[in-house]
């Protein structure tokens, strides 16, 4: 997993816009895309040019980038935020992001089982919260890969 930020910009009248992920590993940088689908705490939604401005908190799940050529790319994000600005620019800031095809469902299931067993023995609220984050992330990885 890698810390990541993404930006997308374009005029509100265009049928596509540019998108960029900026981090130690660059996934997209000012690439022209049709749509970006994001998982948020209030539900998943698609971002198209001229989308209404919004600020949302990302939940663990899959960000899908639909390219102008019809292809798509999927990334698992652990958490973060997505901002859609009035000028149709988009900033996606993810705590961690990794191409979906680089994840291992067996490892995610093993991590999920381990975290679930650790939850029972969590010493305090802070430890319980940390384990719960691991559970939610691994559940989302398993769901995305199955």
Automatic annotation (TrEMBL):
Family named by the database record: Belongs to the ATPase epsilon chain family.
Organism: Xiphophorus couchianus (Monterrey platyfish)
Subcellular localization(s) per the UniProt record: Mitochondrion inner membrane
Domain ATP synthase F1 complex delta/epsilon subunit N-terminal: 28-97
Presence of the UniProt keyword Transcription regulation in the record: no
Gene Ontology MF annotations: proton-transporting ATP synthase activity, rotational mechanism
Key word ATP-binding present: no
InterPro entries named among the record's database cross-references: ATP_F1_dsu/esu_C_sf, ATP_synth_F1_dsu/esu, ATP_synth_F1_dsu/esu_N, ATPD_C_metazoa, ATPsynth_dsu/esu_N
Keywords, ordered alphabetically: Acetylation, ATP synthesis, CF(1), Coiled coil, Hydrogen ion transport, Ion transport, Membrane, Mitochondrion, Mitochondrion inner membrane, Transit peptide, Transport
CDD domains, sorted: F1-ATPase_delta (cd12152)
Role: Subunit delta, of the mitochondrial membrane ATP synthase complex (F(1)F(0) ATP synthase or Complex V) that produces ATP from ADP in the presence of a proton gradient across the membrane which is generated by electron transport complexes of the respiratory chain. ATP synthase complex consist of a soluble F(1) head domain - the catalytic core - and a membrane F(1) domain - the membrane proton channel. These two domains are linked by a central stalk rotating inside the F(1) region and a stationary peripheral stalk.
Oligomeric and partner information: Component of the ATP synthase complex composed at least of ATP5F1A/subunit alpha, ATP5F1B/subunit beta, ATP5MC1/subunit c (homooctomer), MT-ATP6/subunit a, MT-ATP8/subunit 8, ATP5ME/subunit e, ATP5MF/subunit f, ATP5MG/subunit g, ATP5MK/subunit k, ATP5MJ/subunit j, ATP5F1C/subunit gamma, ATP5F1D/subunit delta, ATP5F1E/subunit epsilon, ATP5PF/subunit F6, ATP5PB/subunit b, ATP5PD/subunit d, ATP5PO/subunit OSCP.
Residues annotated as domain F1F0-ATP synthase delta subunit C-terminal: 103-144
Protein name: ATP synthase F(1) complex subunit delta, mitochondrial
Gene3D superfamilies cross-referenced by the UniProt entry: ATP synthase delta/epsilon subunit, C-terminal domain, F0F1 ATP synthase delta/epsilon subunit, N-terminal
Major location (coarse): mitochondrion
GO CC, one annotated term: mitochondrial inner membrane
Ranges in coiled-coil conformation: 105-132
